[in-house]
Structure formats: structure tokens, C-alpha cells
Amino acid sequence: MILDLPTPRPYHAPHVFGFLGARALPDLEAVQGLEYRRRLSRQDGGAVWLKAHWRNDALRLHLPANAGGQPSEWVARVRRLFDLDADSVAIDRHLRTDPLLAPWVRAAPGLRVPGAWDGFETAVRAVLGQQVSVARATELAARLMQRFGDGGFPCAQRLRDADVAAIGMPGQRGQAVRALAAAWVDGDLDLREGADGPSLRAALCRLPGIGPWTAGYIALRVAKDADAFPDGDWVVRKVLKATAAEAAKRAAAWSPWRAYALMHLWHRAVQRAAPNPAGKQAALSA
Q1: Between the chain's N and C termini, which has fewer beta carbons within 10 Å?
Q2: What is the largest CA-CA distance in the chain?
């Protein structure tokens, strides 16, 4: 099945594919240029690959006929992952009223906030990515999948009781993954698209080892909270040359689209090849 998914313009495809490519999990995802692939379970128990690629200003989706699940489910996941339903005209118009953001928005119109293929998977990877680089976070996620995943990303039931730190990270962070898994299994977390962002952030911050940065990152990618803004992010503070409190005050004018303003700050940092020393809590680390 081949579908061309409606994509409101402008749409900055290189940004989204680059973001996903930097975080692609080997044997589960692959990104080459403007093509994304995701492994799905087959109806007979094997595996097939879904493919989405940018073609003539539209996202073309290739759905294997023998993939398990319903086609509508895969379409919804792809739309969420690629943030296809955002109104970039309205968002960019609002952000251009800020003198700092205006030239960046004009240079890169249609920046989107990449969503989550699976809410729990993305939340776990956000915890793994605390205070490490993108490459290290992806490496840890791959180790987690290999050790506990049985061929895919591990489920919450498995991680709740697993020795997560054994993959090679601090014990406190492993405990945070276990606490996250237990809260998800017990129904104490809403990791669905459209979940209330502030409520989700508060629930996450009540878990041991999860702080405001991780909670904000999960809210913007998983719940698709368009106003989520991790003001303590290292890259945000560097680009704005501000403390966390000053960044939060500066970002107030960008509401209700602070998550999209964040994408411009991160995009700007990448364009300028800003250094990201080990140990800093960086925006591009999950």
C-alpha cells in the first residue's frame, strides 16, 4: 500500500529526517537522506519494513501488505513522528514577531517537532540520554534493546524488573528507567499523544532520577505539547547566553509555540556547530 500523506507547507524535511537519523536504532530504524524505515512485525511472525520518504513536497508512505496491525495505526504513528499536522504558517508567523527568532525562521521555515513512534520507547530513551551525547544515548538504547528486547524495543513489563544499569550506565539512571516502566505498567503515566503536558511533566518529576529537562523533552515529543520548553537545556542557555531562569523569561513571548521555538534554537546550534562537552545536559542528547 502506497499513500501520499497530506503535509501542510512549509515543511522543513531535512531537519526532521536529520533529527530522526541521528537517533535511529540499528536493526529497528534506518534513515538515509530523506528516507525513513521502521521494522514492523509480520502477520506470520517475521519482520517487514515500513518506509516513508520525502517526494515532491509530500511524505510518501509504503506500507507492507503483510504487516501486522491496522494500516490506520501505522499512518497515525507516521503522522505523529513527522509532525505532519502542525500549522507551520501560523507558528512561523508568531515566532517571526520576535527579533531574535525572525531571521532564523525566515532561513528555516516549517521546522517541526519530531514526535514519538511509541511513547514509552521515547520516554525511556530520554532517560537514557540524560547528560550524554546523542551518539552515546543511541548506543545505550541499542544495548538495552539487544539485552532485554527479544528482537524489538523492550516492553515496560520487562524493564520494570530488569537490571537496566548493567548495559553500562549509572545505577541511578537505571533505577529511573525501572521507575518509569513501573509507572507506565501501573497506569500512573499518560504517554499518549495529546496527553496534558503540565500533568505529564509533574508525574514524571515525581519519579526518582527524572528531572525537569527530561520531563519537558518527553512532553514535547510524546504528548506533542507545543508549548513545552526545557529552559534548563544546555544548548538553549548557550544560544540565548542566559541562565535557566532568564531563558524561561525570554521564552514567554514564544508561547504557545515554545516547542517550535526550541527547534529553532537547536537548529541554530547545529548550523553553528556549537560544541557539546561531555557531561552537559544538551538539547540533542535523547
Answers
A1: N
A2: 56
How far is the CA of 46 from the CAs of 1, 40, 64, 72, 144, in angstroms? 19, 9, 12, 21, 21
Residue-wise pLDDT tens for the chain (286 aa)? 999 998 889 999 999 999 999 999 999 999 999 999 999 988 777 889 999 999 988 999 999 988 878 889 999 999 999 999 999 999 999 999 999 999 999 999 999 999 999 999 999 999 999 888 889 999 999 999 999 998 899 999 999 999 999 999 999 999 999 999 999 999 999 999 999 999 999 999 999 999 999 999 999 999 999 999 999 899 999 999 999 999 999 999 999 999 999 999 999 988 875 444 443 434 344 4
Residue type (1 letter), 11: Y
Residue 85 annotated to the active site: no
Q: Out of 83, 225, 231, 233, which one is annotated catalytic?
A: 233
Distance CA 224, CA 213 (A): 15
Is residue 4 helix, strand or coil? strand
